[in-house]
Design goal:
Layout: E1 13-21, E2 26-28, H1 31-37, E3 54-56, H2 61-80, E4 82-84, E5 87-91, H3 92-134, H4 148-154, E6 156-162, H5 174-184, H6 186-206, E7 215-216, H7 226-237, H8 243-256, H9 267-280, H10 283-296, H11 298-305, E8 311-315, E9 318-322, E10 329-331, E11 360-362
Parallel strand pairs: 7-8
Antiparallel strand pairs: 1-5, 1-6, 2-3, 4-5, 8-9, 10-11
Helix pairs in contact: 2-3, 3-4, 6-7, 6-9, 7-8, 8-10, 8-11, 10-11
Length: about 375
């Protein structure tokens, strides 16, 4: 059998890169400053080997807002896109929303920079006076403080948006092959993003603090399902990357319908969410169950995914035996429209290769100034 490799087009993606410059409220500490503090210090390692550290020249709280806004922009892109060609690829149907959100964050950044500029001299003087009074021997460290224009001129929030296409027309140039390979790697990035959300759900909300993977909390709230809903939305946004992405989204939707719509989630519903999170946390198993969902539907795929040795899951004072019925699903590989491409081991994700055969059983386990 000859596998038909699907060529992914980047026409549905807009790449976004952030261009953000911060000021940390610090200044490099020079060796002469240390020697002025203690004349007995005569030998210090060369600057090529070790730095002398830094001096805080204003209250750290005054500049922390800029890092928070940068982190907010990073999370926004990560939640809505995937790494692509050194940027974050955003699906075109989400771009307008992402663009407007970045504009809002940028406006907050500029407002904070304006506020810092207006209060800079007052804040720096208060900081310097405080430390000179409490540590008079270190007063010389605060003698070289830049002015407000210099500092605020370094603050910048910007971003760049662009579309990408293959570098050398439609020819057989080697650069085109590399470009296609990078686009096909989006499937691996997508399943890794799903695994990250699932692991976050497990460690923060499902597994007890004792670290035992089989020790599940007694109950969870409806808010706990948000990571699964975000994962489902991202899979649908990137369904053009591979049909299995939409299939995995269908499986998550089907699983969420098995739990109550309101109130705390306990018992079998809780174990179902725990099992789903564990499956998604392993990109190999997530890819496998997505392929089966695509061919047999979510219910059969989910039943097959539970084929594993009996596990005892502890929830509070009770223990639940998880032992679903075993079901063998036979997949005719010629019916598969595409085969998940193998990903190199050093990428951290390796999708199982499906060997050619007539019948094959599968078992499932902007600058301010």
């Amino acid at each position: 059998m000859t596998a038909q490799v699907k060529v992914i087009s980047a026409k549905k993606l807009i790449c976004v890169t952030l261009d953000i410059h911060l000021w940390g409220g610090r200044q490099a500490l020079k060796r002469e400053h240390l020697q002025a503090y203690d004349s007995s210090i005569s030998t210090l390692p060369p600057s090529a080997l070790a730095s002398m550290g830094s001096v805080k020249i204003c209250d750290p709280e005054e500049v922390r807002v800029f890092q928070r806004l940068k982190n907010e922009a990073i999370r926004l892109l990560e939640d809505n896109g995937l790494p692509l060609l050194g940027a974050i690829g955003i699906p075109d149907d989400k771009f307008d929303s992402v663009y407007q959100s970045l504009q809002t964050i940028g406006a907050k950044f500029d407002a904070a920079a304006q506020d810092l500029f207006m209060r800079y001299d007052q804040q720096v003087d208060a900081w310097r006076t405080k430390w000179k009074r409490e540590n008079p021997g270190n007063a010389h460290l605060l003698g070289r403080i830049p002015d407000a224009q210099t500092v605020c001129g370094k603050l910048n929030f910007g971003f760049h948006c662009y579309a990408v296409e293959q570098p050398v027309g439609a020819g057989e140039h080697a650069a085109n092959g590399m470009y296609v390979s990078q686009l096909q790697g989006l499937k691996g990035e997508l399943f890794k993003a799903c695994a990250a959300e699932a692991n976050d759900l497990l460690t923060k909300y499902l597994i007890k603090s004792d670290g035992n993977a089989s020790s599940v909390k007694e109950a969870i709230t409806q808010k706990t399902l948000r990571p699964l809903k975000r994962t489902m939305a991202k899979l649908r946004s990137f369904s053009f990357v591979d049909p299995s992405a939409n299939a995995l989204a269908e499986l998550i939707e089907w699983s969420l319908r098995q739990v109550p719509d309101n109130g705390p989630i306990t018992g079998p519903g809780l174990i179902s969410i725990w099992s789903l999170a564990r499956t998604l946390a392993d990109p190999v198993e997530a890819a496998r169950i997505a392929e089966v969902t695509m061919n047999f539907g979510p219910e059969m795929a989910w039943n097959g995914a539970q084929q594993q040795p009996t596990a005892t899951v502890t929830t509070g004072q009770s223990a639940i035996q998880v032992e679903p019925p075993r079901t063998e699903v036979v997949v005719q590989t010629e019916s598969l429209e595409s085969v998940a491409p193998a990903i190199q081991p050093d990428s951290g994700v390796a999708f199982p290769a499906i060997q050619p055969a007539s019948m094959q059983p599968i078992e499932f386990g902007s600058s301010f100034l």
